[in-house]
Structures are given as structure tokens and as C-alpha cells.
Amino acid sequence: MIRLGVPSKGRLMEQTFDWFAERGVRLSRAGSDREYAGRVEGAENVALVLLSAGEIPRELRAGRIHLGVTGTDLIREKLPGWRSHVEELAPMGFGHADLILAVPDCWADCEGLDDFATIARDFRAEHGFRLRIATKYHRLVRAWLSAEEVADYQLVDSQGATEGTVANLTAEAIADITSSGETLRANHLKIISTPILRSQATLLRSVAAGDADAVQAFADRLGL
Ligand SMILES: Nc1ncnc2c1ncn2[C@@H]1O[C@H](COP(=O)(O)OP(=O)(O)OP(=O)(O)O)[C@@H](O)[C@H]1O
Ligand SMILES: O=P(O)(O)OC[C@H]1O[C@H](OP(=O)(O)OP(=O)(O)O)[C@H](O)[C@@H]1O
Which end of the chain has the smaller Cβ count within 10 Å, N or C? Predict the structure, then answer.
């Protein structure tokens, strides 16, 4: 049996169901909206596993699911050395979002990363602690800032409502996903660089789960 992990709620689940339906495989919830069991029609020997999008990378790495749908941002953040754990079978064309660094609109002298580095250095000298960036993407943000040679900052963990941390005085800047940009605008924040990462929903194969022939047969069925 091939185990297929799909986000259990929201737009990501619905668009995933649509993507498979366009390829002749009907995925659905087995019972009520609150029941996390699924049904698969149009393919033999495939079981639907409804999971949190954030847990799908770990399930793929462990080989508990053969295939999984999640954002590339979550794969790269949660699986160091992701290429040895998963194979990207298909970008799915939805769930587009950019991981960006943003600062308050009113920072008129901060137009880019060079300005940010200067402000961060001055901030530390003036306040005696490092400028705080709120994010849940710790690994990606650290790696990117290190490559860009920005050092005078600290990350503060924020697992949701990250854009609110600046107004709430728990951070000076944020690194989060943006799509329409509305949440940034509503919270008076501006993007100050090219994206740290461009993400979209992707169908991935687990290396550890094995059953390569059966997985390949299903991928063929989907026309991949
Ligand atoms: N506004 C958005 N537009 C498009 N994609 C988004 C948006 N926000 C988040 N995503 C993408 O959706 C995926 C899941 O996001 P997130 O980690 O917020 O999960 P969630 O919906 O909170 O689920 P869970 O709490 O169950 O883990 C991520 O890959 C992310 O890039
Ligand atoms: O650019 P926009 O179209 O406004 O989208 C961006 C928002 O979407 C995501 O939040 P989500 O709604 O998933 O909630 P969260 O804050 O709990 O992560 C993300 O964390 C941003 O807050």
C-alpha cells in the first residue's frame, strides 16, 4: 500500500485535491470535516493520510509516508540535507509564497540589506542587545543572513501572527511567508530584499519509504 500524505485542512488541502482530480485520482475526506481519515478513488493500493503541512517533511524523512504534499519552504526548513531524504516529483503550481525579511515602514533609511546590516550594528551599540527578528524559519533565515554577512541580530521564535510582533514590541523585524502582501501592509511593514526563498506546494517522494516500483507506477498513473 502506498501512503500519500496530504495537508489536512484549508486551501492547501482543497487545491491538492483539485490537482489530483485533474489527473484522474479523486481524494476526499472519509467522514465529516473533523475526521482525519481519507478516501482514494481512481488508483489501486493508495491510502490517503491527512496530516499537518508542517509535519509532512518529518513523515517523509522517516519513511512513514511514501509520497507527500507540502511547501518547499517547510521541506528546506525542517530537513537539513533535504536532497538525501526526499525527491521532488512535481511542483504543483499553487501555494506560492515568498519567505522575506521585513522592517517597519517608518524606517526611512532602510532600503536594502546593506542598510539593515548598518542599522543592526548601530542598534546593538545603542541598546546593548541585538536587534530581534521574529520568525519560525530559523534555519533558512540564519543560513541566508550568514551568506549575506549580516551578524548583529538575534532570532526570536514566532509560530504565528509573526507580523504582529513588531507592534507588540517583541521584535524589530520579521522573516515570514508572504503571498498577496496584505498582512505586511496591514501591519505597516516593508520588504527590504529579494526573497530568501520562493516556495510552492510540491509533490515529494520519500527516499526511506522504499517500494520504488509501486510509487513509480502511481507517478505514471498521474502522468508524471
Ligand atoms: N498566504 C499564503 N499563501 C500561500 N501559501 C501560504 C501562505 N501562507 C502559508 N503558505 C504555505 O502553506 C504551507 C503551510 O503553511 P503553515 O506552516 O502555515 O501551515 P498551517 O496551514 O498553519 O498548517 P498546520 O498548522 O496544520 O501545520 C507552507 O508551505 C506555506 O508556504
Ligand atoms: O501575504 P499574505 O497573502 O497576506 O499572506 C501572508 C500570511 O499568510 C500566512 O499566515 P497564515 O494565514 O497561514 O497564518 P499564521 O500567521 O498562523 O501562519 C503567513 O504567515 C502570513 O502571515
Answer: N
